[in-house]
Amino acid sequence: MTKHIIIGGGPVATNAIETIRQFEDGQSQITLVCDEPAHSRMALPYWLSGQIPREQTHTADDASFQKQGVEARIGTRATSIDPAAGSVTLADGDVLNYDKLLIATGSSPLKLDIPGTDLPGVQTLWSLADTEALLASAGTSANPRVVMIGAGFIGLIMLNAMHKRGWQLTVVERESHVLPRMLDTDSAAIVGSWLGSKGVAVHSGTTVTAITAAADGSKSVELADGTKLAADVVIVAAGIKTNVELVDDTGIDTDRGILVDDRMQTNLPNIYAGGDVAQGPSLFGGQEIHSIQPTAVDHGRIAGANMAGHDVQYPGSLSMNVLDVCGIQNASFGNWADTSAEAMTICSPEGHVYRKLMWSGDEITGAIFVGRANDVGMLTDVGMLKGIMQTRTSLGQWKDFLAENPFDIRRPYIATGVAKKLAATTLLGRPAQPRSYRYEGTPAQATVGTSHGVYVDAKNNS
Ligand SMILES: Cc1cc2nc3c(=O)[nH]c(=O)nc-3n(C[C@H](O)[C@H](O)[C@H](O)COP(=O)(O)OP(=O)(O)OC[C@H]3O[C@@H](n4cnc5c(N)ncnc54)[C@H](O)[C@@H]3O)c2cc1C
Question: Ligand 1 centroid vs 243 CA: distance in angstroms?
Fold first, then answer.
């Protein structure tokens, strides 16, 4: 019987487990090793804002693991891997043998090397424990003053959750503008002024030099430009690093992450990696780390299918970050930062609208969209743009049409048959299966509507 070991309990791990169980011909053992309960980090903001209870961030429980035949070693860390012996050593001293190993250890927030980061009330905001700690420390004040260091994608997702709670928010960004790895200068200026209008103070182009605390626990965040910001809580959201330490001295190749091919396989046989820790194929070429949920889900499913003995290739992931912060929606896709690409841009700071399409010939290879979150056109356009890019559709004459009618994405989307192509696209060569775990056991919707039926049929017949 094949022995699978999966290290990690995020979306890569849960999707790999489900896929192994759906694809395997014979029987296999699956052992999951994770230091946290299996959960979705992208659900944490909903808990932080008070929209869902903590338990709803979980993606599996004892019963679901049992149903899937998974031995779940939750609360345990893997401390080393021995590829020659085919074994993983755990923090409690146990040594587990594997035939196939999946490393899905994710990434971690970077620590800042400045005085004061070890003070109580100064923390990162990445995990279940971080969210719990923030809710506990902020809970002592009705309307806490929060200073966030770093205005990146994850930081602003969590900032949005705190804004919903009505907390007093300030963000410090060392780059010249907010969301530096997602937006260009002009689009970020729109977002920065929007945040200001919603009561979020933004200090960009400066760094934090020290954090000090008074006897009552209140803190002062000191900036390089001399500003001092008063805070009850300080959040460090200054970037992430891949959790690759586990493969040090194993012979597994790494660059910025664990290098994997289009089957999620590392350079060593029977060892796979996926998600935030993996540097894998990108849709537009090369190997990249995208650190987003859709890539983690794809990686888990591709790794699972291959671990179950099928040969399934991954076309590569599309880099996409979509974020609603305080009512403004921001989306960036693909090679949005490619300054050499031909670009079509609309910029209306007064209307809080920005759109940039980047071209390679008649194909869109990068894009930035900013607009009001309650603008339905913005939301549907973001979805259609993603479809056009995901299917790598050549737009031909519709490129000129978009130059004249930049807000009318719908016509090229329909005319070039993108919806039909998407309907026929499957990652694993068949329609997705229902999830095996649902919060509070809510049954999956039993009746399938007509449109859904047509969609699934298209995949069945592809
Ligand atoms: C607050 C927040 C909000 C986010 N929102 C979005 C969003 O809106 N959209 C989006 O696309 N992406 C979002 N992301 C990113 C997304 O959550 C990640 O890309 C995704 O979780 C990566 O999945 P993973 O399985 O690779 O790793 P993870 O989900 O990080 O899971 C890895 C697990 O492995 C555990 N682990 C690590 N090392 C070991 C070890 N040695 N032994 C045992 N266990 C170990 C970790 O503790 C962790 O529990 C968000 C992330 C955060 C933090």
Answer: 10
